[in-house]
Design a protein that fits this description.
It is a single chain. The protein is of the alpha/beta class. The protein has a single domain, classed as Alpha-Beta Barrel (TIM Barrel), CATH 3.20.20. It contains eight helices and eight strands; from the N terminus they run E-E-H-E-H-E-H-E-H-H-E-H-E-H-E-H. It has an eight-stranded mixed beta sheet, with helices on one face. The longest helix has 12 residues. The N and C termini lie far apart (41 Å).
Length: 241
């Protein structure tokens, strides 16, 4: 499998588990806010798959799971074979995906190769391209991914990186109507970094995030905000448990 990056340990990317993260090469979207834009072109130096599998052998008593992210993992022709190798070592597997290749997700689920799926929902149906750039895209594929997950027995989540000027309270409510309100939905604030290509993008302040959270939570109780340290938010979360 074409692997461009490897994070040996994460405590936050696989809910409930200590895991490592594998970043695959290439992506079919072209999001300006992407934190992993260095992997989009697929031109980064490749890491040795064998060495990563050997690392997993050595860390069985420390790691619980493996996160496969990207780039877009479902573009990898040997993704199924690689995950089979990982599962054979006793690890749980989480897949991060943009949801545009539902046929690959279906195959993975049919083979019981996934334990958790996180799907990045970029925007509302009609304005998806505001985020993903000028690429070939069919919203039907995202809808099919949502349908497949809802009909499965696997644990999963939907999440949206929100950007000031692109995502409003009404936009977020429309996204929830699109994916449904019966499953956990996470918002995460845009963060600038050296890999973000569009330096004009803006993040929300903590007060703005808190206001978004409180307004949307009124109608959609399954929404949560990641990365917000505001104490008032923490009180709201405790109150809603």
């Amino acid at each position: 499998m074409r692997i461009n990056g490897f994070e040996k340990t994460t405590l936050v990317n696989f809910p409930g588990y200590v895991a490592c993260i594998i970043f695959t090469s290439g992506c079919n979207f072209n999001c300006d806010y992407c934190q992993n834009s260095m992997f989009i072109s697929g031109k980064e130096a490749l890491l040795d798959e064998k060495e990563i599998l050997e690392y997993l052998d050595k860390r069985k008593k420390i790691l619980d799971g493996v996160v496969i992210s990207g780039g877009e993992p479902t573009l990898q022709e040997d993704l199924i074979n690689f995950i089979e190798k990982v599962k054979s070592k006793g690890y749980k597997v989480k897949l991060d995906t943009n949801g545009h290749r539902p046929e690959v997700l279906k195959k993975l689920l049919d083979k019981n190769l996934l334990d958790y799926v996180a799907v990045d929902i970029k925007h509302t149906e009609k304005d998806y391209k505001k985020i993903i750039g000028n690429v070939k895209f069919d919203i039907k594929n995202i809808k099919e991914t949502v349908k497949i997950l809802k009909e499965s027995n696997i644990d999963y989540e939907f999440r949206t990186t929100i950007i000031k000027g692109f995502h409003t309270i009404n936009v977020i409510k429309d996204i929830i109507k699109f994916i449904g309100s019966d499953k956990n939905y996470y918002l995460q604030n845009f963060e600038d970094s050296e890999h973000v290509r569009n330096k004009s993008l803006l993040s929300f302040s903590e007060d703005e995030l808190l206001n978004i959270y409180k307004e949307v939570k009124k109608d959609f109780p399954n929404i949560s905000m990641r990365g917000l340290k505001n104490k008032l938010y923490e009180k709201e979360e405790i109150k809603n448990v």
